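Severity: low
Component: inverse-folding endpoint
Summary: output formatting inconsistent between runs
Steps to reproduce: submit the following structure tokens with default settings.
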């Protein structure tokens, strides 16, 4: 698994250059590969992708036109001061990424080269884990059906190079306001599947735990049985139990080429695993 980070273009254009560059250096220091705007094609379904951006609501077209005019006539140092003041006046809501809805965000990511959802998507956006917020919206979208989405309900950030920085960083270089009260949450298919306290976990451990727990729903996203619901469907209906990988493999071995067999092969191909029963 490679660890990528992508700074939203509107975040870059609306933030002081020194701040963005400092945050990029911080990310590289913590093992990230910093991607340019159109380099999301490098991200595979087995990778970890982080997106950096504010969760500001969209600005009106009038405000945007005024800002564009101001930026054209102000010198660089005044531009940075004005942008910093603008950021201070606007509030993160948790429902957008740089003023974009989940649908618009996905379209931007696809246009930037993202072919499919990564194994895990981390949102470095304040309050993104709010109820019905941008994390939940993205997690419920078909494009991210097999992606674990990580987000937080508090303000989060990354040190831009401030030597007096005293907030506790996790192994990814991130900080969380009031971290003891605001754990990171993990969503899959729009559902909360895990919580972890800031700075206490490795992504690989979380992924392993979640995927073991959620095999049932992932399997059924690939399962294409016949009119009678297939052996797995009937098994779950008759027993009231969720399908496990072990049971699915046993059924596939008994009947090669079945819907169960095909679903397992598709899952393993998509997730980069070896087909253990072959």
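Observed output (run 2 of 3):
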């Amino acid at each position: 698994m490679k660890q990528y980070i992508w700074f939203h273009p509107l975040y870059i254009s609306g933030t002081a250059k020194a701040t963005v560059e400092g945050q990029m250096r911080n990310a590289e220091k913590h093992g990230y590969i910093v991607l340019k705007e159109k380099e999301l094609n490098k991200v595979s379904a087995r990778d970890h992708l982080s997106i950096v951006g504010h969760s500001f609501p969209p600005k009106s077209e009038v405000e945007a036109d005024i800002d564009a005019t101001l930026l054209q006539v102000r010198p660089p140092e005044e531009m940075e001061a004005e942008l910093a003041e603008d950021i201070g006046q606007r509030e993160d809501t948790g429902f957008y990424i740089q003023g974009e809805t989940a649908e618009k965000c996905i379209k931007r990511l696809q246009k930037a080269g993202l072919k499919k959802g990564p194994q895990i998507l981390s949102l470095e956006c304040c309050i993104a884990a709010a109820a019905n917020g941008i994390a939940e919206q993205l997690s419920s979208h078909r494009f991210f059906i097999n992606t674990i989405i990580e987000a937080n309900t508090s303000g989060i950030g990354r040190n831009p190079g401030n030597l007096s920085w005293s907030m506790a960083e996790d192994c990814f270089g991130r900080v969380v306001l009031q971290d003891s009260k605001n754990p990171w949450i993990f969503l899959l298919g729009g559902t909360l599947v895990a919580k972890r306290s800031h700075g206490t976990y490795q992504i690989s451990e979380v992924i392993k735990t979640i995927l073991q727990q959620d095999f049932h729903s992932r399997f059924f996203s690939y399962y294409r049985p016949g009119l009678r619901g297939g052996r797995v469907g009937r098994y779950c209906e008759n027993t009231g139990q969720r399908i496990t990988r072990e049971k699915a493999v046993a059924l596939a071995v008994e009947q090669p080429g079945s819907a169960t067999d095909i679903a397992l092969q598709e899952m393993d191909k998509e997730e980069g695993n070896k087909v253990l029963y072959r």
